[in-house]
Fold each of these.
Amino acid sequence: MADKNLKNEIEKRRTFAIISHPDAGKTTLTEKFLLYGGAINLAGSVKGKATARHAVSDWMEIEKERGISVTSSVLQFNYDGFCINILDTPGHQDFSEDTYRTLMAADSAVMVIDAAKGVEPQTRKLFKVCAMRKIPIFTFMNKLDRDARDPFELLDDIENELGIPTCPMNWPIGSGKDFKGVFDRRSESVVVYSDTQKGTKEGNAEVISLADKDKLLSVLGQASFDKLMEDVELLDGAGSPFDQEEVDAGMLSPVFFGSALTNFGVEIFLQNFLKMTSAPLARKADIGIIDPVEGEFSAFVFKIQANMNKAHRDRIAFMRICSGKFNAGMEVLHVQGQKVMRLSQPQQMMASERHIVDEAYAGDIIGVFDPGIFSIGDTVCAPNTKFAFEGIPTFAPEHFARVRQIDTMKRKQFVKGITQIAQEGAIQIFHELNTGLEEIIVGVVGVLQFEVLKYRLENEYNVEIRMDTLPYEHIRWIANRDIDMDKLTGTSDMKKVTDLKDRPLLLFINSWSIGMTLERNEGLELEEFSRN
Ligand code: G4P
């Protein structure tokens, strides 16, 4: 039996990611969360705004110093008896595979949507990954202080675009300059809007019961009052009823309306979210399910970050602890490397500061110094146990380029550099099948990764490269490995390649070719991502 303290520590943990399309308000909402946790004194100081939306050019400078993206990878703070870990999923220009992988470490997700815009492309992509893992997804409909779309329409948008039923937990009364507050369905009361709380956690919003019609009318005014009464009637038919089991299974998204900037509806959202979301979830391994409380220490690597300075072997491996307790200095087994070792310089992020951790629990994220031995998806566990967690899928890159070194004498450094960068998971590399060409095809999820690759090869490996963009947009891994690649017939635009792990796959320019190829090769099975 696990000791009581361990159980308490683990059960109070909530580890989640905030997903959104750029500018929907993820940073602002995170800042307000931290404010409630007392981790910062005044919202706005989590990370420089410039960092969140830095231009491509200054990205290099920022990354060179590295501090920022390392420290913003995960934030930990305490609130209301919970220990909260927020995983950062950059949704900006630096959108990359890292973003997807980070979601593998989360137990739930908060989806921030700009109420004037509804579901946007990046939201859709990130949602897909959450849906694949069936983790609970909570929606914060943001920016009600600005003119917003009709709330019924916004719910339809989520249901139609993302295919997940919604359950509105509260309901907005107007928007923009007519925003009067939200109606809380559980308590049947109206929380009156005021923006006096902006940037602080002080000040209580006025709450009026729905039954107190006179007061409501005087505060809201006739038009808003009438609209609210009408909406309350319609609400029962809108969305789905609340069902915790459906939420847990990622099949129903509770929706909250509010305004992160003016700090309205944020704390109510946080409180409800913490109650509805789960403590660290059990994870699947090759020996079965690993229980977070009963199991001994175990973790998996979901992200590897290399320093941008010339000592490029200085890497940090980010691990999500899945079970038990971690003590600094303890011996662990690196399963894939088959080595018992001590994790060196384990670090954790508390708000914006990095510090060395002495202990950490299931649900926490630690960053450890990686002498170049870890790969994405690796498992570490107590030496007396031995198992591997399910692999982290390789996500489909969306941009491709042919890359070659300019100086042919530098072939060796080029191959070494590009392979190491691919091992870190920043890019994916492919070789053309049977062509014997000395070229490498690079695939990335976000185009910024091309620049990162060029910069790093030049600065860390001293290799200048040439990059020619390729028109491929679709990639499919071949699920049936026994297929004879030479005999496979596709369309003229199709390219046969292998990845870093020698798995065969196909590149296509358009989705029509995928259908044609499937038609022409009976029994062929194609997958959009590949499990390690
Ligand atoms: P992101 O991390 O999702 O990209 O979004 P971020 O929080 O940086 O917010 C993007 C912009 O939207 C910011 O404005 C921010 O102030 C604004 N914003 C966020 N939440 C709300 C809200 O509830 N209401 C309103 N009206 N605006 C909101 P900006 O002008 O780009 O930056 P700044 O000059 O305000 O810092």
Note: The chain has three domains: 12-276, 288-381, 399-527.
Amino acid sequence: LARWADLFLVAAASADTRARVAQGIANELLTSCWRGAAGEKAVAPAMNQQMWADAATQANLATLKSRGIAVFGPGSGVQACGDVGAGRLLEAEQLADLCADQFESGLLSGAHVVITAGPTREALDPVRYLSNHSSGKMGFALAEACVEAGARVTLIAGPVHLPTPARVQRVDVVSALDMLAASEAAVAVAKAGSSQPVFIATAAVADYRPAQVAAQKIKKGLKDDTLDITLVKNPDIVASIAEQADKPFVMGFAAETHAVEAYACDKLARKKLDLIACNDVSRADIGFQSDDNAMTVFWPDTQANEGVARVELAKASKAQIARELVRLLAARLTY
Ligand code: C5P
């Protein structure tokens, strides 16, 4: 219960609950979860106006605020007991907006971020394709985090089962060639319309596609125990965007099962990336299909050991990892 939330809001927070969390009491479910929660925290006070004005109430609130806990409201007006004054719980819509505001950093205001996400599907014939297990969750979480940070976001999505995050422009594609064309078009718009174009490649693009797409369904030959399919290499989307003369800031991802650091650093240099986030997909608890991730992020830095700086992001929800990545990205844009 305590671990998953990005924000823990107690609404309505009584004077008693606020006193208990201010004191660090954790002898029942609510206060135990509160103390065990790692994300942001907020209270929405609700009480009688005289209780609100009481010195102990105000002292407890000051303690909570000094610990970085947000206080939403209270509103003012007619109260359940008939009194009039401060202490009314804010409306649900106001609370929802205040929750969203907690994540609005403005770190990417003015930037136009183009993100690829999900798998690609490479057709063999009208009914069959080659693909992979990418869920698209990391790319969608990043799109959401970039919007929170004030960026304009274009999300180029392969076939995934995810809702479009609010305020994100989504372009659906199927194959790697479609994804490349959509990426080039979106990056051109980002470069023309924004002082800070950014390209983030989270998609698990199929490395190869069938050389020929059969016009009709491939039939099983009665005597054939094997079927040979010739594959040709797909273009590397992120590398081709990074090759552009006035290239945007380019961030790539790497999913590795071993020698994570060596492969990540090789990709950083070879694909001319400005930042690469790498996860170890041999771990069953993170990465593909999972709601959690843990990453190591690398970027070129002449001052650092072997010319590459690194930061470890501990296991957290993809939403939390996405916000950390946005902070690292924004720091690279300004320095
Ligand atoms: O070489 P590898 O596939 O491991 O590289 C991963 C990174 O390159 C990811 O950022 C992925 O989105 C990107 N990529 C791409 N086009 C490809 C293959 C990978 O943009 N054809």
Note: The radius of gyration is 25 Å.
Amino acid sequence: MSDKYADIIIDISHEKVDRPFQYRIPDRLRAQVTPGVRVHVPFGKGNHDRIGYVVDVSDKTDYPLNKIKEITCLDEKGTTVEGDLIQTAYWMKRHYGSTMITALKTVLPVKQKLKQLEKKKVTRCCGEQEIERQLAECIRKHQTAKARVLEALRKEEVLPYELLRQKLNVAAATLNSLEKQGILTIESESYYRNPVKRISERDSAKILSKEQRFIMEDVMHDYLAGKRETYLIHGITGSGKTEVYLGIIEQMIAMGKQAIVLIPEIALTYQTLLRFYKRFGDRVSVMNSTLSMGEKYDQMERAKNGLLDVMIGPRSALFTPFPNLGVIVIDEEHENSYKSESMPKYHARETAIQIASCKGASVVLGSATPSLEAYFRAKKGEYKLYTLKERLTGGRLPQVYTVDLREELKEGNRSIFSRKLKELISVRLEKGEQTMLFLNRRGYAGFVSCRACGHVMKCLHCDVSLSEHRNGSLVCHYCGYEERKPEKCPSCGSKYLLGFKAGTEQIEAAVHKEFPGARVLRMDADSTRTKDSYEKILSTFADGQADVLVGTQMIVKGHDFPNVTLVGILAADLSLNQNDYRAGERTFQLLTQAAGRAGRGDKPGEVVIQTYQPEHYSIVHAANQDYESFYEEEMMYRELLAYPPAAHMLAVLVISGTEEAGNRLMEKFVVLLHQKIGEEKELIVIGPAPAAVSKINDMYRHVLYLKNSDYEKLVQIKDILEEYIRQQELKNQTVQFDFDPMNTY
Ligand code: ADP
Ligand code: ZN
Ligand code: ZN
């Protein structure tokens, strides 16, 4: 039997994740020593007994065999939150590909122990009469600062130190002197940073509809019977999914369990959070990218120490160290942002299921347009599926018109707006109702080209065209490179170097031109640079201070606007033209969501979809709000071409300083696959080839795709390539793995 070795991190909760140390696993402990387990080891020169966490297990060691130390024994304390997280990191490393340290850094977002904040308070320590007496004395002696303190302490027994210092403008020396006199005491107490403003308002539970109650009771019934499942709630926006989550969470809390709620960052608005705060009060916290390190650290501590019941946040909130997790909820389960873009490229849905199984929790997914993955699993019976059909706040589904833009052109209409859309906007303006104009511009750049020779202005460092900005500069959206727009074409000297500005700015201008007097707001990446501008635009619109809101996919999420009765979708098929197997799904989701924004209140809504491909199934089914038919048709296509979820797919992305280096490594990979795997019938290999964007930031990108019905087979291939990479110590070259990618490269 060959030896086994464990990588161990010492004292993970006290020190930053530094580096693992290797120990031999004694034969008697072989079965028990797995990632996440706590063990005792001899450490350092004096071989002091220390506790460490096993983070990895392997057959090899780089140490001389006579020097390597041995694990002493297992720690009695059993599993801990840290242990669970390490187990998760290990799973992510294997399942998605990355080094263990990178995976650990993903699940332990705050490595360093940060100092607790302290707050000073001042407490009165004599009776009211004594205070009155002292106050009179101070006034007589014209000691006005002291008098201000005594006056304040007469009303309030305990006061924040900072309030006295700043608001009442009292010197520290004055307070110290009062302390010496025995009138007050100054004390420090430590506290946690809390990103949530205190809210005293409370909401109580709504009386659930029969359908809502059924879901909640079914989930809880399973839970109490010891069954842990994954549930998918398919329900249009407004059908009451969130109310079901709240009900389940409430019951979990009553049993002393905690909940993690994932919401895409873009939908994580104050309005959404307020609903949770009002229901569960101070024991709710939030994680997002705007929190400081200290705030993040304190939220983790509060969770670990039992001071929180609910954590809300994007992807990373999954790693909240709750001691007694009951449920993980993932709202808008289909969102792309649930997939990490950096290594390990994990998906929150799969990772949530892994964490839940490790901690004995249930998983509840919800969406109006479930991902093909989730729906496929639900149909196969891996998840339990529920459907909510009715909108609870009233409001019927909108009337949808599909306009063929080719016909418009034939009839001589060259405007951005079809005749139907123009007519309906006018009616809205007359009636004082609101319109949303949605530009589907994913993957679309407002590129600049020469009308004489066709030359396209490209970034010097990336294989992409530059976009023109209003200030006259050309910008690369991949690397930030910027240059002034030249007067003449650099290729032929013609002065007809023009931008295709079918962007939100142009639509805004077109609305002004067609409807003078209409009040227009615009929301896109440019107009929402600053932190609050996103919320500000939305609330201005919600307050009725504008008639038309023009925007990109950003406007599809978040707020509810009861006065919006018309949604116009311009160029619905732009996102179909991407060379990407998920383009149809993404288009369907965007159109369905955009259409769903119309008629949320009691007034009926209308939707105009403008497109060059009115017969495309994504557009037809979105117009009919028919998820089921879309699913069937899209699934047929995925099965035919063995795309996820019909099969599994691994993208291997090689990023290199030179094109040749990229080609060379890819050739090596292909040879290696032939040697190790041979002519495996089921394995489909596509490429290697340059990526669609073949250069970013002066680094060349090559991609290789592998498809197989068995995920494990792809993991083995990844392991083979990783092993090879480890031996090479690549210079100026990196390799990334992406399982079931959200987009092609
Ligand atoms: P979803 O999460 O599916 O978009 P919500 O749970 O947010 O749906 O519900 C939509 C609206 O209906 C909300 O304003 C919510 O307060 C209300 N609502 C949900 N369930 C009920 C109920 N059982 N009774 C009354 N109102 C409800
Ligand atoms: Zn030219
Ligand atoms: Zn660039």
Note: The pocket of adenosine-5'-diphosphate (ligand 1) is lined by residues 206-209, 212, 235, 237-243, 392-393 (CB under 6 Å).
Amino acid sequence: MTRVRQQAQSESVRWLAELRRSADALPDASVLVDQRGRIRWFNHTAGSLLGLFRPQDRGHELGARFAGTELGAWLRHGGMGPVTDIASPLPEGPRLGVMLIPVGRRARILLARDVSAISRLEQMRRDFVANVSHELRTPLTVIHGYLELLDPNDVPALAPVLDEMRTQSRRMGQIVEDLLTLSRLEAQQTAVDDRVAMAPMLASLLREAEALSQSRHRVELVRESRADLIGSSRDLHSAFSNLVSNAVRYTPTGGSIRISWRDVGEGAVYAVEDSGYGIPADHISRLTERFYRVSSSRSRATGGTGLGLSIVKHVLSLHQAELHIESRPGKGSTFSCEFPAARIQRTAT
Ligand code: ADP
């Protein structure tokens, strides 16, 4: 009986050693953290990717071990969702994709992967788009300027052509500006932490909606929340106003548009509801992709660039907020931006 048990024991020890060797051979770093948040075990790759070494790092509290780094900040905020590109805590270290996987009741595994090559390619793509947009800006401004100088009354036969040229040059200018905005947003890690007063913001959005609609729609503002936001006033205004402009552009004359701001749990929601054309369900998940349009002709006819909702998505993600889209073709759409408690300021200052 004792021999059988001894055999089973040495078999288990061999298995354990083999498992550890296999884990050490993995190209990804894995760190096992116990229910108290302390590092229990990590593989060999955790050394080159995260700078963890045995035995000194065993038993450390994971968040405290990476304090003062981007990874530490992510862990402090609960390690929510996988992060696709974050700096390694090592100086000159690789770019990392990280995620926390729950194990059993409260233990977790931190997984980290070297994504430097993908991150470099992404950076090249971003730089390329930003450079092209920047280079196009000056010649477009010149063309646009000359077109504005031409008087259609001088050559009445060419008046429609001139009009079309002006419309198209304005459209190109707007595409370039939107691409530059997207590049700027992509280069940011988080939004600034300014207090954004919602009362004047909502009043200005209402004025914009009325100006765009030119009395073709019923426009209403419902302000149920007294909360303010914490973030970038310029970027939030750009996102909110994109949703207002879409509601006006995709709602036929006689329809209604409601802008609202209300508390939801500890957070708050900004929403724009319209009674417009609506969006078929199979398009909804793709709307925030660059240049994705349900109907190109309708988007162009109303002066769209196809970049508005991409900008909205980026701004919201910088503010840890979520975009929800509900729509029924022929009935209308609601675009809601849900902000977490951390982005809400309720006290008067
Ligand atoms: P665009 O400049 O084309 O409006 P957006 O990125 O703002 O680009 O929107 C993408 C597409 O989503 C639009 O082309 C349109 O098809 C659809 N869309 C956006 N908002 C609405 C809305 N309120 N009602 C119906 N369709 C909408």
Note: The domain at 194-345 is CATH 3.30.565.10 (Heat Shock Protein 90).
